[in-house]
Design brief:
Radius of gyration: 37 Å
Largest sheet: 4 strands, antiparallel
CATH architecture of one domain: 2-Layer Sandwich
Bound molecules: iron/sulfur cluster
Strand content: 15-25%
Oligomer: single chain
Distance between the termini: 155 Å
Shape: elongated
Number of strands: 6
CATH topology of one domain: Alpha-Beta Plaits
Helix content: 40-55%
């Protein structure tokens, strides 16, 4: 017994006080993903990247909302969501105590409005994403950016139609300019030919008189 006591004194504390005291964890530990709903624009990049399908997006067409969802029970703490998020709206914390008494408590969500198309009225993209694109385009100058700003709240199908109409209008204008240029060129050539013909006629008259 004395031998064991001496050994214990020599070894020191072999256990930790957890759960009666917080357990220190490594600074790089990957724990519960924490979602910042204000920074998130509902782009779904994290849902696409998540290998465990722990994150998914759901759309309610009647309410015109898109919902970001996470099931912590499926999470494998791989960190792909954090890597893929362009806005740092999801980060892995050091929290590892995820036990709950109800499965529903493992589910978290954030609801976002969807932008309606200004042409056909169909909801087509998260409004926060459209607003972000507008803020970015506001800092860009040029006619291409201006056009993109004009069609920001237009759905892809209607935008393709508008793009085609715009291309046709610019083609028509270009064709009209080419046609006008050709007419003017022909007119100028015709004027030159008339002047040369008049000179030839004058020369021909002189030589005819000489023959006679
Ligand atoms: S840590 Fe990995 S498994 Fe968990 S939510 Fe993020 S991507 Fe999905
Ligand atoms: S990647 Fe980021 S911004 Fe996009 S839905 Fe996920 S948390 Fe939100």
């Amino acid at each position: 017994m004395l031998k064991l006591w001496k050994l214990e004194r020599k070894t020191g504390e072999a256990t930790v006080a957890y759960p009666f005291a917080p357990l220190p964890v490594n600074k790089d530990m990957r724990g519960k993903p924490v979602h910042d709903a204000a920074a998130c624009v509902a782009c779904a990049a994290c849902a696409v990247a998540c290998p465990a399908d722990a994150i998914w997006m759901s759309v309610d067409p009647d309410a015109e909302t898109i919902t970001w969802n996470i099931n912590y029970g499926r999470c494998i703490f791989c960190g792909r969501c954090e890597e893929s998020c362009p806005f740092e709206a999801i980060r892995l914390s050091q929290e590892f105590e995820l036990a709950v008494t109800s499965k529903a408590d493992l589910h978290d969500q954030a609801v976002y409005k969807i932008q309606e198309c200004s042409v056909c009225g169909r909801p087509f993209a998260p409004r926060k994403e459209v607003d972000l694109a507008r803020r970015v385009l506001d800092q860009v100058v040029g006619s291409a950016a201006a056009w993109q700003r004009d069609v920001l709240d237009v759905c892809p199908a209607c935008r393709r139609r508008l793009d085609a109409q715009r291309a046709k209008a610019s083609c028509d204008a270009a064709n009209a300019a080419v046609l006008l240029e050709a007419i003017e060129r022909d007119a100028a050539q015709a004027g030159g030919a008339d002047a040369a013909g008049a000179t030839d006629a004058a020369d021909g008259g002189t030589s005819a008189e000489g023959v006679r």
